[in-house]
Specification:
Chains A, B: Its cofactor is Mn(2+); Zn(2+). The structure is a homodimer. By secondary structure, chain A is α+β, with helices and mostly antiparallel strands. Helix content of chain A is 34%, strand content 25%. Chain A is globular and about 80 Å long.
């Protein structure tokens, strides 16, 4: 087994659920162990490691001209409950492997090359994705970050205290153009490369993501005793909203509108009790901001209509609503040349998924390299990219980092 | 404050959630503390207490002819998550108060009078209601009871070991006609008595309850990357089922058909992940077995249709499906005479809620006494019956027990 495949396997063992599923929530014991493992591997090859106060981790291969803005690469290692082994991790450990390959080839970069492990790309704990890159890019201010509350009702600062990080958030933001270029390697998390039998995707644009939290309050009561016409069942209202969300995405003018009700909780949650409260989180994305925003408005209108008709109250919170990112043309061209020279098949494509690169693109030239994954599956224990697919991604990344650091 | 009102307030303090809500799951610390409190009160007035191996608790006031079949009364003290202070508890502590009132009046019964505290009337822990009375009546055999698994994946026996009960289940079942008569005092859990400004309901029939567990398996994936036509979203399938359940009850030929999806869980339960699994529990009741069974069949047909159309698999389990109970005419007449003599307003009525009396009716003559509760609310922190309403219920119970034990 190759070095990186072994490391990814070892990394998967840091999980709150048994493999093949992986559950690694930011700041959990598993996350902290996985971070320590990554740092050790970086230090083993002489990289200088810096960890910022929220846990974003920079592993630097010093260039011959260390004052020049470095070239960055990296991704995340946190994993949503019962997901897979490759989302994010391939970009972090692939960055490390790319540096090892370049070192072993005798190459010495002019610009420094940095691997960046982003904190909490997944929204599991704080209900907001890309916590680390949002703060690095300044899109999330320290003041607003302090207001974040996790699923166990602890603040970000309380989490940082628990894991012994410093809690002064003002030092996280990077200066504009801190990186001369940033390239993130990632599995596609979609079916296109596999279906078209391609080795590499070069990302030209990242879709516009948004999410809503919806709190619904109806009227509880005993399931046997309140006749149907008297009910204000918060669970049924929530069910109707979830179906409306699905239908609005299905009927959007853009084929790329996708919408998901990924969180659906009811209270009290007993078989003989009418649900008195429900909480939903809805994810809505598109490659076009116009159709994304129309769908977002339609969902909010529909929530109002359903709530009024059913006599329940609903409180909608826009959890995030980010613009799409356009990738840097010169980086796309660099990666394309590298891919051609390696003889790999490729296509330029749009990322439908949300990535830290969406926020890095706000402060420096950015692109992404995609590799295929089986059946397009991600956020699932069956998520899989083959050693060969990973190898081709790492080669493409290594030679792109080389070209950009010369 | 009256003795019983103080005791009910004290009882409410044994709760896993802050008052006014009450959460007291069977075999939890709170449940065990509440049981100990009840037993102490019984022993204080000289009742002989026997606890069977699953925790059904018999507190006996010995009659002058102790060989005669006793008269029974009682109910439950377990409470579903975030419910109220009166469901069940009024029947247990009302039974105790009734005996105290009779004792203080100088009465001495011929037949013994027993208060019965039933174990786990609520289905919260084991997914099945009336555990104690099902086993007392022999409707649940020791063999089937051994197969019960709770929400934390522990068997009934493992629970009994934890709380230091004996685990030989064969001794629980009572002989047929162990009681000469059984009368349960309970809040109505519905709006009728309050709306008609009546003091007492005398129950002639208990509705036929049933419940289903539905496991749905679809296809997970990243919420951003799987386009809408490719999805097999288990959460949306579950939402459609919940709405079908509501609609089938609304459109039943019987006005008394009620159906509730009280449990609605999805996995993995992350905002950016398509639900790959869902689990529902559905409660369906009616006063007429024909329309109940038709609705139950319609729900199952609809689950199949929705699952096939959406390409998800569903596995439906009938958790319980009990026949209605007809109350004993002579007991109904006795309670009616007592109520008339007390000058209380009353009506004969059907119980839409599920009670331990449903199962006691299988082994002995049984009826129930209802008192009004505010807004018909139950299984809710706002559940409330006034001291005066409780007093009238206790008086009716006391004189009924007297009449039946003479």
């Amino acid at each position: 087994m190759n070095r990186i495949d072994k490391e990814l396997q070892k990394l998967a063992s840091f999980s709150a659920t048994p493999n093949p599923s992986v559950t690694r929530i930011v700041y959990s014991e598993e996350d902290m162990e996985a971070r320590a493992y990554f740092i050790t591997l970086c230090e083993n090859i002489g990289l200088k490691v810096r960890v910022d106060v929220i846990g974003n981790t920079f592993a630097r291969w010093e260039g011959s001209q260390p004052d020049l803005a470095p070239v960055g690469t990296g991704s995340h290692i946190d994993a949503i409950p019962e997901s897979g082994q490759y989302d994010g991790t391939v970009g972090v450990f692939g960055g490390l492997e790319a540096i090892r390959v370049l070192k072993e080839s005798g190459y010495s970069p002019k610009r420094s090359i940095e691997i960046l492990l982003f904190t909490s790309e997944e929204p599991t704990r704080f209900g907001i994705g890309c916590l680390g890159s949002r703060m690095l890019s300044g899109q999330l201010t320290p003041e607003n970050a302090e207001k974040l509350i996790d699923t166990e009702n602890n603040s970000l600062k309380q989490n940082l205290e628990r894991v012994n990080f410093n809690t002064d958030l003002s030092s996280v933001k990077l200066p504009k153009n801190y990186y001369n270029a940033f390239v993130e390697l990632h599995i596609e998390q979609g079916p296109i490369l596999e279906a078209e039998n391609l080795d590499i995707g070069i990302v030209t644009m990242i879709a516009a993501p948004s999410s809503l939290g919806v709190q619904i309050v109806g009227q509880g009561g005993h399931a046997g005793c309140v006749l149907m016409p008297k009910r204000k069942d918060a669970g049924c209202a929530a069910a109707e909203i979830a179906l409306a969300v699905e239908s609005i995405a299905q009927n959007s003018a853009s084929d790329n509108t996708v919408a998901t009700t990924g969180i659906f909780n009811i209270k009290p949650g007993a078989v003989n009790s009418i649900p008195k409260e429900a909480y939903l989180e809805i994810d809505l994305r598109d490659t076009f901001i116009e159709t994304r925003d129309k769908a977002l408005n339609d969902v909010q209108d529909k929530i109002k209509e359903i709530s009024n008709r059913r006599g329940v109250t609903s409180n909608v919170k826009l959890l995030n609503c980010d613009p799409p990112a356009i990738c840097a043309e010169n980086l796309v061209n660099t990666v394309e040349n590298v891919t051609k020279n390696l003889g790999y098949s490729y296509k330029k494509m749009i990322s439908h998924a949300y990535h830290d690169s969406l926020f890095m693109a706000q402060i420096c030239p950015t692109t992404m390299i995609f590799i295929p994954c089986r059946d397009g599956l991600s956020h699932h224990p069956d998520e899989y990219s083959s050693p060969e697919q990973i190898h081709k991604g790492v080669q493409t990344l290594a030679l792109s980092l080389k070209a950009l650091s010369e």
